[in-house]
Automatic annotation (TrEMBL):
Species name: uncultured Sulfurovum sp
Gene Ontology terms, MF aspect: metal ion binding; metalloendopeptidase activity
Annotated residues for binding of Zn(2+): 265, 269, 340
Listed name of the protein: Integral membrane zinc-metalloprotease
Family statement drawn from the similarity comment of this UniProt entry: Belongs to the peptidase M48 family.
Keywords annotated in UniProt: Hydrolase, Membrane, Metal-binding, Metalloprotease, Protease, Transmembrane, Transmembrane helix, Zinc
Spans through the membrane: 6-27, 65-83, 89-110, 131-158, 164-183, 279-298, 310-331
Annotated GO biological process: CAAX-box protein processing
Domain CAAX prenyl protease 1 N-terminal: 37-192
Pfam families according to UniProt: Peptidase_M48 (PF01435), Peptidase_M48_N (PF16491)
Record note on cofactor: Binds 1 zinc ion per subunit.
Co-factor requirement: Zn(2+)
UniProt entry tagged with the keyword Membrane: yes
Domain annotation Peptidase M48: ranges: 195-394
Amino acid sequence: MLQTVIILYSLYTFMKIYISIMQIGYINEEKRKVPVLMSADKYLVAGNYAVANGKLGLVTTFVDYLMFIWWVFSGFAWLSGLVQVEAPLMQAVLFLFGFIAVNFVVGLPFELYQKFKIDEDFGFNKMSPKMFVIDTLKSSLIFIVIGGAIFALLAWIISSYESWWVWGFVAMFTVAVLANVLMPTFMGLFNKFTPLEEGELKTEIDALMKQGGLKNDGIFIMDASKRDGRLNAFFGGLGKNKRVVLFDTLVEKLNVDELKAVLGHELGHFTHGDIWKNLGLMGLLLFIAFYLFGHLPAELFTQMGVIPEAGVQIAVLMLLLPLLSFVFTPFMSAVSRHNEYAADEFGSAMGGKENLVSALMKLVTENKSFPKSHPLVIFFYYTHPPVLERLKELGFDASNTIVGEESTLPIDGIFSFIDKK
């Protein structure tokens, strides 16, 4: 059984590496061609940024594979021998904390390189090392408290029910929904949220939300610029009560009409029920994951040198979940891209096509998102259609358009700011 798992994980890793290599080669070739959406120098910079991220991704994928091999051959057995506590729930929680801690330490150098080398070189990172340490300590404390409670709950369910995977799914799906609702609250521990002052922008957003059938739960400006230079925003909460959070970087770059068109796009998701559809797809993936991992044979754990205690079972689920997610990713991405086109149509109807196009064009340069990608990357990973296709659907052919210095920006990240929250 262990051999089968290793083969499947190896194929998954090979596919990720192959897709990354194809993407890097594709962008290296495209960035030297006639630029679109950006001036030639910014087009090249965006391409170089994508390539730098792609190369780092290759390294991290390979390291993740080495960590997987270590965990299944000796890591779990080593950690199980290290964590010896009589209380079953405490044993499970400490084992999982150890599993997370080891992976965190291994991944930390790559996170630091991403933030303080790549993002720093390309003008995104605004965070100081001191701020990074403080954020990490805050995140760790939150994880210890909330993550420990979740781990204990899962361990108790595994220990108490023969069909633990059913109740484990229910518990984790509930946690995922609550996390969606409470995310803005936790972000308040890291950022300052300032209520939007009275004025044209607030009036327009209020009117837009009423038009879309939403109740305004507050409109806030977040001081995102102290950490990162990218543009972003999001709607918080489920149901009709929504909190609007705009990054200060976004408000600085987009005018009122453009912001209205962008927020209209999100209202399109609400009107079409896309938030609930996404939760449904996530729930389906979680259900399948818990079913499969809840029926792993005891032979697998024996071959790894451990007994299937609660902590070990949860750690194995966490280790193998990316493999299952990868299989479902193309389907979920395709559904999401379909929803994005419909939301674009809705947003352009509420805020004007020309304003939505203008917003997309501006977001291109500011976020340094290279406007082209290899078809395999689009097929597997793009939850939003490529920017050129998006603009085309809005009636604007940008294939041969170069944006001047006074304009700004490529796309794919533009709506991720509100859609994934």
